[in-house]
């Protein structure tokens, strides 16, 4: 099949989850033998050994809110390609590509990893209602209606008007060939003397909960446990605050953001993968844990037992006691996290969990499995 993939507000190559997702899906579909053209904001270089035709096309002024202004250029490109399927990464102000699917008799696929419906108390919803006709809601629903297939990790974030037979619930994934326990490469940190290193990898947003890991390590030290440390990989708005909270703790390291190709070796050098999500810190999560956490899948693929809160969908992603340790956050978030880390300090306890996590990732959370399921969904829609 010829596939046109529009993700123009994502930078490829890049280090953020959206960038990793787009590169993995485009390459995964190409590896299945499809002719893939991907429209992205160009990053630093081109993905090595790529089988994808990467077309640089950033949204005007770098703003995803202006994506529709690229409609003309994308239409010209699409009419030249004549794709069998058009895949668009959803955005509230998107629609620059998927609206071309029906005129071109292509299957339209919408990737949805953010709520289409408004969360309670949404400022956007208040503005929309003040405009009387609710143009933003109507536009989002129109985008969903234009799709033959909607791929999402959580159908609850879609409008109730979407027919169930158009929805494919799929988790995102990890490159299980690259992320593995024996991944080679330069390790970006030197162990500070702790025999158990927990790793946090992320964009340091408030709901990622990195501050709770620092607080947990501080609690463990107060209990006399200096054998457990942490390495905080990434950068983002909360990093300075988290680093300040870690002041004086020599077993917490901050190597900074890494190119994604260096992440497998970094994770393989750790012992526990931590995803201390704080769902109360992000209002849209009132709709539920709607995204598919790449960090969790990459931890698991690397053979790390996962420590995360037992909230919403997380227990369905990580089998508590088998693939990691899930804790009840509540008012004692840091203390519960500290207890979970202490439970995994014994290699005899954590190694079988890491092996089980790796097996689950290969079976259920690989990008290869995701792309095969996406290919099937497109083929099914074409046969209708």
Structural topology:
Elements lengths: L1 E11 L4 H15 L3 E8 L10 E4 L14 H11 L3 E5 L17 E5 L11 H8 L4 H11 L3 E4 L14 E3 L26 E7 L7 H13 L5 E7 L4 H7 L6 E5 L6 H6 L3 E3 L19 H8 L4 E4 L4 H4 L6 E4 L5 H11 L3 H18 L2 H17 L1
Parallel strand pairs: 1-2, 1-4, 2-3, 4-5, 5-6, 6-7, 8-9, 8-11, 9-10, 11-12, 12-13
Helix pairs in contact: 1-12, 5-6, 5-10, 8-11
Main traits of this protein?
Rossmann fold, 384 residues, 13 strands, 2 domains
Structure, described:
- This protein is an alpha/beta fold and 384 residues long.
- The protein has two domains: 189 residues, Rossmann fold; 169 residues, 3-Layer(aba) Sandwich (Rossmann fold).
- Helix content is 34%, strand content 18%.
- It has twelve helices and 13 strands.
- The strands form two sheets. A seven-stranded parallel sheet has the order 3-2-1-4-5-6-7, with helices on one face. Strands 10-9-8-11-12-13 form a six-stranded parallel sheet, sandwiched between helices.
- Helix 8 links the parallel strand 11 and strand 12.
- Helix 5 packs parallel to helix 6 and helix 5 packs across helix 10.
- The protein starts with a strand and ends with a helix.
């Amino acid at each position: 099949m010829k596939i046109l993939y529009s993700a123009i507000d994502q930078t490829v190559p890049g280090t953020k989850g959206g960038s990793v997702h787009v590169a993995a899906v485009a390459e995964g579909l190409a590896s299945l033998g499809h002719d893939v053209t991907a429209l992205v904001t160009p990053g630093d270089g081109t993905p090595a050994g790529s089988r994808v035709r990467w077309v640089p096309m950033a949204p005007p002024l770098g703003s995803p809110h202006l994506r529709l202004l690229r409609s003309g250029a994308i239409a010209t490109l699409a009419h030249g390609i004549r794709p069998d399927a058009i895949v668009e990464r959803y955005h509230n102000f998107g629609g620059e590509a998927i609206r071309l699917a029906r005129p071109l008799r292509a299957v339209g696929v919408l990737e949805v990893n953010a709520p289409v419906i408004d969360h309670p108390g949404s400022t956007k919803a208040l503005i929309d209602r003040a405009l009387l006709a609710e143009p933003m809601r109507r536009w989002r629903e129109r985008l969903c209606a234009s799709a033959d297939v909607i791929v999402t990790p959580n159908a609850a974030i879609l409008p109730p008007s979407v027919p169930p037979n158009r929805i494919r619930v799929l988790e995102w994934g990890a490159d299980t060939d690259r992320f593995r326990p024996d991944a080679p490469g330069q390790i970006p940190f030197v162990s500070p003397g702790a025999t158990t290193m927990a790793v946090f990898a992320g964009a340091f947003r408030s709901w990622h909960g990195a501050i709770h890991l620092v607080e947990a390590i501080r609690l463990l030290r107060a209990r006399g446990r200096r054998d457990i440390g942490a390495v905080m990989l990434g950068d983002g708005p909360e990093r300075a605050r988290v680093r300040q909270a870690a002041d004086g703790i020599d077993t917490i390291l901050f190597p900074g953001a890494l190119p994604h190709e260096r992440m497998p070796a970094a994770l393989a050098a750790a012992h526990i993968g931590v995803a201390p999500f704080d769902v109360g810190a992000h209002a849209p999560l009132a709709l539920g844990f709607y995204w598919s956490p790449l960090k969790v899948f990459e931890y698991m693929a690397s053979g790390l037992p996962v420590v995360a809160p037992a909230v919403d969908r997380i227990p369905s992603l990580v089998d508590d006691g088998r693939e990691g340790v899930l804790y009840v956050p509540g008012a004692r978030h840091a203390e519960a996290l500290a207890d979970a880390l202490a439970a995994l300090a014994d290699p005899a306890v954590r190694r079988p969990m890491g092996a089980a996590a790796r097996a689950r990732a290969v079976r259920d959370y690989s990008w290869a499995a995701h792309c095969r399921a996406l290919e099937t969904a497109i083929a099914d829609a074409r046969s209708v």
